[in-house]
């Protein structure tokens, strides 16, 4: 399960005078658990329903109410400081009275003064009130004014209200509010909702317990592709052969060593992925025998017998599902385009990234790459030498275009 991560985000949590203010304590706790730095501001009416210690106890930050409070000491003017540090203002619950004060441009308490001092979005308003109060033209006019400022409203839930009637006006559940905050702070990119599988690195085929047959792949290209996919909203699984790179954040990392392990990790995952990008350099051959003990120089080894490994890209290509997008890489040293074209067809790929790894500044180990994109039935598209992060961006731009038909 991927949990909400709000670390590094500062949230000003405004609490209005509603019975549902007790739910705001749970919201505060959930935001803190998600890693956010939360500053609660309670209105005077909110203090009739819940206590300030509940909120400073949960947030581990001072709570303020009055514009003349000094939550940051006397050297800081608090309402200006709140406006400055907030990544987002969340008002939950927002009472009818809070909406009216904000719409009127009032600054008669800490919450309204801080919001008046804030000229940028985002502000998330979660109203909670009696159905008739919510439906009243005055409240709806206030809502329209605030939406005009760019504030986002989370629609109040329909259900049984405190006064016993069923109608619109319930504060949305804290989990829904946390999700709304996440979507505002991290808007889904053009790969949102898609499961992406990326392979990276060079496999190692053991000869004995200390030696292996490997290749020069650093994994930098595959890692850049995984990072960019996660940044654009995809759920990413990265199957990585040994590399000296740090595991990217927000990516599920599966570490493998050999071509056989790579096949076991990739084939079942590819069956359920929306997009598969195979950037790993997988050994085509492996030693038939792996010596149990380290081979000794004095014993001599004249021949290492090799056996072909499973062609993972061919298997994945054969089982391609409708709507699935397959991307491959071809690292060549001769006849780059001809070999790449052949691979594109043979592996049933939608996009192939060809590069001449013998060229300086391109291919293994470098931070840059000079690639040519190939698509079935289209002219090859050569790109200039670019940092690998930019090649990753160009790759995803093309995949998105392919999938949306744009
Ligand atoms: C028991 C009780 C429950 C209330 N619940 C709500 C409510 O859910 N929503 C609301 O807008 N006002 C509610 N009110 C009225 C507000 O508390 C009142 O309008 C107050 O001035 C709001 O202050 P604030 O703007 O500082 O939140 C309630 C009042 C009482 C006595």
Widest β-sheet, arrangement of strands: 12-11-8-13-16-17-19-20
Mean pLDDT: 93
Total strands: 21
CATH fold type of the largest domain: Rossmann fold
Helix segment count?
14
Shape: elongated
Proportion of residues in helical segments: 25-40%
Binned strand content: 15-25%
Number of domains: 2
Describe the structure.
The chain has about 400 residues and is an alpha/beta fold. The protein folds into two domains: about 10-185, Rossmann fold (3-Layer(aba) Sandwich); about 195-405, Rossmann fold (3-Layer(aba) Sandwich), CATH 3.40.50. The chain is built from 14 helices and 21 strands. The model has no long low-confidence stretch (mean pLDDT about 95). The structure holds flavin mononucleotide (FMN). Flavin mononucleotide binds near residues 16, 18, 20, 96 and 128.
Could you write a compact summary of the structure shown?
This protein is 34% helix and 22% strand. With 406 residues, it is α/β, with parallel strands linked by helices. The model has no long low-confidence stretch (mean pLDDT 93).
Characteristics of this structure?
406 residues; alpha/beta; Rossmann fold; 2 domains; eight-stranded mixed sheet; five-stranded parallel sheet; 14 helices; binds flavin mononucleotide
Write the layout of secondary structure elements.
Layout: E1 10-15, H1 21-33, E2 37-42, H2 46-49, H3 52-59, H4 78-85, E3 88-94, H5 96-104, H6 110-116, E4 123-127, H7 131-135, H8 137-148, E5 152-153, E6 157-160, E7 166-170, H9 174-185, E8 195-200, E9 205-206, E10 212-213, H10 220-231, E11 235-240, E12 251-255, H11 259-270, E13 275-278, E14 285-287, E15 306-308, H12 312-318, E16 325-332, H13 336-346, E17 351-356, E18 368-369, E19 371-374, E20 381-382, E21 386-387, H14 388-404
Parallel strand pairs: 1-2, 1-3, 3-4, 4-5, 8-11, 8-13, 11-12, 13-16, 16-17
Antiparallel strand pairs: 6-7, 9-10, 14-15, 17-19, 18-21, 19-20
Helix pairs in contact: 1-3, 1-9, 4-6, 5-8, 10-14
The protein binds flavin mononucleotide (FMN).
